[in-house]
Structures are given as structure tokens and as C-alpha cells.
Amino acid sequence: MSESATIKVVCYSVALALVGTVFLALEFADPGQAARAAQRHGPRLPRDTGSVAGPAQVVDGDTLDIHGVRVRLEGIDAPETGQTCGRKWVGTWGCGAAATHVLENLVRDRDVACDSMGADKYGRMLAICHAGALELNAEMVRQGYAWAFLKYSARYIDAEAEARSARAGVWQGDADPPWVFRERRWASAENAAPEGCAIKGNISNKGHIYHMPWSPWYGKVKVDEARGERWFCSETEAATAGWRPANVK
Predict the structure, then answer these.
(1) d(CA 18, CA 21)
(2) Radius of gyration over alpha carbons of the chain, in Å?
(3) Sequence-distant (≥ 6) Cβ neighbours of residue 203 within 8 angstroms
(4) What are the backbone angles phi and psi of residue 93, rounded to the nearest 5°?
(5) Torsion-angle region of residue 144: left (phi > 0), alpha (psi -120 to 50) or beta?
(6) How far apart are alpha carbons 64 and 55 in whole angstroms?
(7) What residues are paired with 118 via a beta bridge?
(8) 3-state secondary structure the chain
């Protein structure tokens, strides 16, 4: 290599190092901002490259427990358990509960194998899961019981188009995507909650449990601070304090 080429390579390497230093400085320039983001949205978690397989317990329409590992079906978003959707002509139906039931039928008496795509901000494994040859993520969207979660993946666009065309599941009438449903519920609860901390921490004979604004029982739960019950601003805060999420089934 000529002397001039060597000089160019060195200069290029130095420039890359300086750019990296600038990005790091920006990332950590305001530790308070990072802490506030972690409190509201949860910590960033390292990519999980593992897998899990075995009998699956259904938590809701896009979440499973396998051997104690909480698995979130990657690239899809099913209606929340307490969510309702419009019928073709008139009235509503429990699309969230129906999505849970459909996933239960898909995994019943079958081992489920999940390949991790990483971890989400709540520590759940994000995975593509199969029951035999059937891919659960795609099937939930294809049957109309989950949306393609385009914010994170375009993998299931075709499956959603198929469900829309067939007016299957949630596509038979008007329905809010679950991320819209959650955002509306959170905004409403946040306005009414002390200091905007909308998660309710409840103590019962089942232990210390927290309820999200879209929980089916959220409206019925009363926070009695005299009994040690409390409000939380984020799921991360609740989990760190030793509380667990309510079982939505």
C-alpha cells in the first residue's frame, strides 16, 4: 500500500472513531432523560438469541408462557383481553377474549417451538412460534384475530390483507387496533390518576398485583393507600417494586 493510501486509511479510521464518540456523548448527555425514558417505557434489553419449546400456556391473543418464559409473538398485535370490536351490521363482540380462545385452540395438546428475535422492553422474549408446521404469528393474523404490527415488522402484511379480504375476525366490522385502544385507555386513566401515574397496584389474597388501564377489571379496582396499595407510572416501576401483572384471563 502506498504512503498516501495508508494516510487515507488512518484518517478514515480516526474520523469513524470521532463520530462514534459524538454519538455516545449525545446518548448519555442527559442521564436524567435516559432515566425518565426507562421509567416510562422500560429499560433497553440485550438481544436474546435463544429459543424455547414445550407445552404453552396462553396469556392472551399474542402472548404465551413456555417453561416459565414469557413469549410475545413477534410482529403481531392482538386485541386486548377486555377489548370489544364492531360486528358487521350492529353491536359489538369480545374480540380480545376471542383472540385468546383462538390461540388456545391452536396450541392445545401440542408442543410449541419459539425462535427468539430478541427481547422487548418488559423482558419478554420476542419470537416466531410454531405448533408443528403451523406458524402461530401468521395464523393469528390470517384468521383475523391479530393485526400486523407494522411499527415493528412488515412480515405479516400479506396475511392481514388476506384476513381483510375475507372480513375475518376483527375485520367483520369497525375495530380499533390494539395500540390505539391502549393509547386511549392510558390517556384517559392518566388524566384521572394522581400525578398521571395510571397503573393501579392492588393487594389481595393473590398477592401484590398491578392493573394496566386496559385491564378488564381496571375500573373496579380501588387503590387504598392506607393498606399499602399504590399507583405506578410504568410497568418497570411496578415490577421493580415486586408487584406482578394481573392475570387477564
Answers:
(1) 5
(2) 22
(3) 209, 227, 228, 229
(4) -140, 160
(5) left
(6) 10
(7) 126
(8) CCHHHHHHHHHHHHHHHHHHHHHHHHHCCCHHHHHHHHHHHCCCCCCCCCEEEEECEEEECCEEEECCEEEEECCEECCCCCCCEECCCCCEECHHHHHHHHHHHHHCCCEEEEEEEEECCCCCEEEEEEECCEEHHHHHHHCCCCEECCCCCCCCHHHHHHHHHHCCHHHHCCCCCHHHHHHHHHHHHHHHCHHHCCEEEEEECCEEEEECCCCCCHHHCCCCHHHCCEEECCHHHHHHCCCEECCCC
What are the tens digits of pLDDT across the range 98-133? 999 999 999 999 999 999 999 987 788 999 999 999
Q: What is the length of the chain?
A: 249
231 vs 10: CA distance, rounded Å:
55
Q: Dihedral through CA 170, CA 172, CA 173, CA 174, nearest 10? A: 30
Phi, psi of 4, rounded to the nearest 5 degrees? -65, -40
Return the bridge partners of 231, or none: 200
Tens of pLDDT, residues 97-107: 999 999 999 99
b/e 155-184 (16+ beta carbons within 10 angstroms → b): bbeebbebbeeeeebbbbbebbbbeebbee
Instruction: Report the predicted TM-score, pTM, of the whole model to 2 decimal places.
Output: 0.68
